[in-house]
Amino acid sequence: MICLLQRVTQAEVRVGGEVIGQISPGLAVLCGFQPHDDTDSLKRMAHKLLHYRVFADDNDKMNLNVQQTQQGEGGDVLLVPQFTLPADTRKGLRPSFHTSAPPAQAEALFEQFVQEITEAYRPPQTGRFGADMQVSLTNDGPVTFWLEN
């Protein structure tokens, strides 16, 4: 599993012009799934995502995770399924998607990942699997990390 995590002041996902997911300060996360991903990898990534320290403490050091930010109230999480994220781009000028999980598997993994985040923290906002989504955000910093497990 691959997650592209961005610390944001706001983010939203639209489908057909309608806002389907929207957050205030927190994490916007593009989620890519690979054929070998399973329940254990989803649990590890959920833990990493919720505990990754990307928010500033009182000394302006990145020592707080999304659950500790916003004066202890915690920040929001937006999860967006991203089929192209695990693409193999090492050769040529066209990506290969043999490293991405097939759509049915990836959709089930995304739903399970949303559940993992919900159980460990609180329900995230989400994009819609398989939809043509428009994602807009304001990256805070900018702070962006590529997480793999």
UniProtKB/TrEMBL annotation:
GO biological process per UniProt: D-amino acid catabolic process
Q: Which UniProt keywords apply?
A: Cytoplasm, Hydrolase, RNA-binding, tRNA-binding
Q: Which InterPro entries does UniProt cross-reference here? A: Daa-tRNA_deacyls_DTD (IPR003732), DTD-like_sf (IPR023509)
Sorted alphabetically, which SUPFAM superfamilies does this protein's record hold?
DTD-like
Q: Which Pfam families match?
A: Tyr_Deacylase
The reactions it catalyses are:
glycyl-tRNA(Ala) + H2O = tRNA(Ala) + glycine + H(+); a D-aminoacyl-tRNA + H2O = a tRNA + a D-alpha-amino acid + H(+)
| UniProt short sequence motif Gly-cisPro motif, important for rejection of L-amino acids, positions renumbered to this chain | 141-142
**GO molecular function (one):** D-tyrosyl-tRNA(Tyr) deacylase activity
One CC-aspect GO term: cytoplasm
What top-level branch of life does the organism fall under? Bacteria
NCBIfam families in alphabetical order: D-aminoacyl-tRNA deacylase
| Domain comment, as recorded | A Gly-cisPro motif from one monomer fits into the active site of the other monomer to allow specific chiral rejection of L-amino acids.
Q: What does this protein do?
A: An aminoacyl-tRNA editing enzyme that deacylates mischarged D-aminoacyl-tRNAs. Also deacylates mischarged glycyl-tRNA(Ala), protecting cells against glycine mischarging by AlaRS. Acts via tRNA-based rather than protein-based catalysis; rejects L-amino acids rather than detecting D-amino acids in the active site. By recycling D-aminoacyl-tRNA to D-amino acids and free tRNA molecules, this enzyme counteracts the toxicity associated with the formation of D-aminoacyl-tRNA entities in vivo and helps enforce protein L-homochirality.
By sequence similarity, the record places it as follows:
Belongs to the DTD family.
Protein name as catalogued: D-aminoacyl-tRNA deacylase
Species assigned in the record: Hydrogenovibrio thermophilus
